[in-house]
């Protein structure tokens, strides 16, 4: 893809010519990024709904438009502090003799952003906020699964940015593969773990540093002390938002054996209250395409075939089989076992397995025998039990007494662990991810090398320095 190399070269040349990147330039770019989203909010809502088959304007305004403006505003507000040099202590005796040390956060250059389809505006713009705040240029690859949104980005970006500042790249898997292989100064990918492995391989030939925001099976642990009605409502809201097509969606629930029936009833009640109908309900999102709808259908059939009881939450008794729609009701999978695909793969849809546990250590063991998840959720008032869950599990992030919300906190780093990702962004962590932490040491006016005995021929001064070092 020669044109991508041309864009990258132009961006890097412009970047080097314009160093240093001032605060005013960074703020101006952030302002233009916000304007690009805000000015075209209605068109973005329409494009996302077209790509999904249906998604409500209100959801897109909250999860894509508002959630894109928030990190941009946060970066602009805190940019002065983030850009300040970070003074560091100088070890004895150099500090006493006048030496100084500090870290300067320099922009890296050109950052590649590979955005997914599930939140196609937010998951391009949120990393872009950190990229621009850090003083970089950006090339962003949109998802081929959201072509209307991609086309809109491609159409409007030139009104707000010169191509040497921010460029949009569209296309299918071949374009994505070539994009990941470009010699960026940093690359951030949000998407599936399997694709993340290919991204890492592609970037390795250029030694490009990579941030991977992946997914995995984010568990909900319902403690014995939890308020079941409140917990099930919050889990249901998180599971059915965007029809479960969220990297942080609660993927499966671990519940005390004695509470399973109450949990199932609570989920059904919450889902029915939020979505009394589904097919004509403007608030409920469609599964993004036929392939994903068929995948979910096959996984549900696999669970049934292997002994699961699947309860479909369909309060209006609608006929989904004959509907010309990819809307899918919530499926609660009871008696889910490890040999079922729904307990092996990230679900990314309105399917919720429920498993019983016997004591909190059993729940923790069930989490720990799987790959480290992107998110973990615990409900309960038992402080000792909560602390044990936090201490004995590893996940990208945690929300207590709710689900998903930790991603919305701009001052918290967002990232995974192991197969759920590497690196983090949001807030100051994002600024530093997309910056080079450059160490600077300023020597004192004294001849330190002579005083410390570093100059040959070695003698008494060198012996004293060595003796001090060995202490």
From TrEMBL:
Keywords tagged on the record: NAD, Oxidoreductase
GO BP, one annotated term: aldehyde metabolic process
Domain Aldehyde dehydrogenase, first and last residues per copy: 14-440
Alphabetized CDD domains for the sequence: ALDH_CALDH_CalB
KW Oxidoreductase (keyword) present: yes
InterPro entries xrefs: Ald_DH/histidinol_DH, Ald_DH_C, Ald_DH_CS_GLU, Ald_DH_N, Aldehyde_DH_dom, Aldehyde_DH_NAD(P)
Active site, renumbered: 213, 247
PROSITE patterns: ALDEHYDE_DEHYDR_GLU
Sample GO molecular function, one term: aldehyde dehydrogenase (NAD+) activity
Assigned GO CC terms: cytoplasm
Family: Belongs to the aldehyde dehydrogenase family.
Name this protein carries in UniProt: Aldehyde dehydrogenase
